[in-house]
């Protein structure tokens, strides 16, 4: 799995606005160290997360370790492209400076705005060595295939797809994207597996998400509808001395995806590590998927176009 850092840092689109957090490098240092010690060395971020603050925190924490021990993943967001000769390389260079490195292991087109143009611009970055592997995020199947075709002309390919995927939002499965990834040796990174905490079992109608955060606005009104699903996940977890969140993570792994788990505390790292050891039965998977559908809750993000 990957460690997600969307909630690290502050500013436009940062953890303070979206999650109600206000976390700096000093707060997250023990969390980062615990992840490394636990064998979790893949970290996912984006320049748009807090307009660079997430990347800067990751760069500050990562410099304590040999670069080859880290797998760093960040993104080019088309809406932030500047009017310069090579916007994608300009943004990559900003990310490299923030991350205190001279290359990234994964570089993503964050969404499909003008996608063909940006995918073509990835080719020289791959050839330069500044980018080791490329991926596309929030793309539909047609756009993914188009991107792969563009790269194939230069003997290259997409290595990964990163889409929103959870028990409450299974579009990538329904659209055949996960199957396409499996057939073409593409890693599918699933983000928002826990729906920003709504599927963690820690929040409910009586104990909602923090007021004033983006996630509270999105999820607090859904908790009464999620009670049956959460209770079923809790029972599955109880049979394995596991939490609701661990069941949600184990489900995502069972679906041939690599979940990105946002962590801000040491115990959340431990929880994620142990979730990877849980193997759900096909009956359990089918049961919670059925209950998820029955909730009628659609968590599709405003940024997600089909």
Structure at a glance:
The chain is built from 13 helices and 8 strands.
Largest sheet: 8 strands, parallel, barrel
Number of helices: 13
Q: Could you say what the CATH topology is called? A: TIM Barrel
Distance between the termini: 26 Å
Which secondary-structure class do the elements indicate?
alpha/beta
The CATH superfamily bears the name NADP-dependent oxidoreductase domain
Characterization of the model:
The chain has one domain (2-295): Alpha-Beta Barrel (TIM Barrel), CATH 3.20.20. It is 44% helix and 13% strand. The chain is built from 13 helices and 8 strands. Strands 1-2-3-4-5-6-7-8 form an 8-stranded parallel beta barrel, surrounded by 4 helices. β4, α5 and β5 (131-137) form a beta-alpha-beta unit.
Task: Name the descriptors.
306 residues; alpha/beta; eight-stranded parallel β-barrel; 44% helix
């Amino acid at each position: 799995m990957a460690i997600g850092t969307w909630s690290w840092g502050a500013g436009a689109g940062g953890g303070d606005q979206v999650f109600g957090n206000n976390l700096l490098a000093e707060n997250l240092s023990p969390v980062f160290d615990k992840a490394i010690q636990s064998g979790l060395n893949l970290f996912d971020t984006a320049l748009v997360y807090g307009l660079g603050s997430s990347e800067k925190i990751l760069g500050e924490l990562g410099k304590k370790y040999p670069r080859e021990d880290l797998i760093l993943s960040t993104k080019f967001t088309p809406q932030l492209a500047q009017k310069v000769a090579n916007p994608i390389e300009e943004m990559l260079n900003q990310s490299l400076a923030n991350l205190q490195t001279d290359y990234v292991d994964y570089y993503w087109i964050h969404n499909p705005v003008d996608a063909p143009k940006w995918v073509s611009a990835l080719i020289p970055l791959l050839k330069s060595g500044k980018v080791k592997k490329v991926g596309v995020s929030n793309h539909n199947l047609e756009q993914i295939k188009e991107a792969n075709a563009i790269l194939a002309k230069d003997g290259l390919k997409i290595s990964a797809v990163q889409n929103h995927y959870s028990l409450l939002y299974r579009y990538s499965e329904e659209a055949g994207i996960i199957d396409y990834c499996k057939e073409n040796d593409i890693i599918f990174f699933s983000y928002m597996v826990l729906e920003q905490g709504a599927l963690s079992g820690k929040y409910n109608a009586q104990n909602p998400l923090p007021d004033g955060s983006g996630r509270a606005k999105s999820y607090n009104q859904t908790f009464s509808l999620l009670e049956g699903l959460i209770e079923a996940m809790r029972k599955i977890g109880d049979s394995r001395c596991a939490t609701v969140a661990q069941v949600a993570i184990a489900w995502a792994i069972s679906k041939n995806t690599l979940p990105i788990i946002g962590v801000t505390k040491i115990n959340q790292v431990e929880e994620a590590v142990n979730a990877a050891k849980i193997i759900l039965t096909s009956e359990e998977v089918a049961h919670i998927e059925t209950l998820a559908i029955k909730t009628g809750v659609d968590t599709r993000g405003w940024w997600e176009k089909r």
